[in-house]
Design brief:
The protein has eight helices and seven strands. The chain is α/β, with parallel strands linked by helices. It has one domain: Vaccinia Virus protein VP39 (Rossmann fold). It has a seven-stranded mixed beta sheet with strand order 3-2-1-4-5-7-6, with helices on one face. The chain is globular, with a radius of gyration of 18 Å.
Amino acid sequence: MKKRIATGIVSKLMPAPIKTRHTEYSMIFSADDDASHPSEYLISTAIEAIESARKISLNDISARMRGPPYFPDIWPGEHYRLLAGFVSVLNPRVVIEIGTGSGLSALSMKKYLPQDSKMVTFDITPYKSLLDTCLRDDDFRDGRLVQYIDDLSNPSIIPKYLGLLEEANVIFVDAAKDGTMEKMLLDNFRTISFREKLVIIFDDIRVWNMLKIWRDISSPKLDLTSFGHWSGTGIVEWT
């Protein structure tokens, strides 16, 4: 309720300066007093992932969509090719996605996943129940893609998947953006002793409810919005 009231007030006081397909309110901040800054590892990895994304084609995944806009083909502006770029550069053994949605992100990352690796996507809704899903039963047959129906923001769920989470090399967070869920996910991550070097990719970091969550992350981080999703893409070297 408070969010709707605040959004309504802002909308009346500050109408969008241009008309677009989708508009979100955001804010800009000084960088010198941020809680953290990007590490050399993040910068070099991001450069490699961006270069890889330039050469990536996801036409086969776009072909599964019912109609335009064909988001996997849009880059920069959408994050699918960048996600695939990170997977191709990092060669992760375990990728965790939080928020399956239509399955476009999972499919984009799986396409460039090493043969002996696994992509696990979590959601509270089975993919088969969504009308706009791009996932097919065949995508799961080789065991390299798995969907679990559970909420990792719930601390009581973490022990159930602790072994899997500890092995993660890449975690992609595309969750509720409600100002609460992502904070709870981060709190839960802090209880896990990750065994591998971990990169966490956050979607929508420039959306209003994500501004404080992103700003408060103290691990090395880098805003890659210009090379990812127009609503914000950020990467974190989890320490």
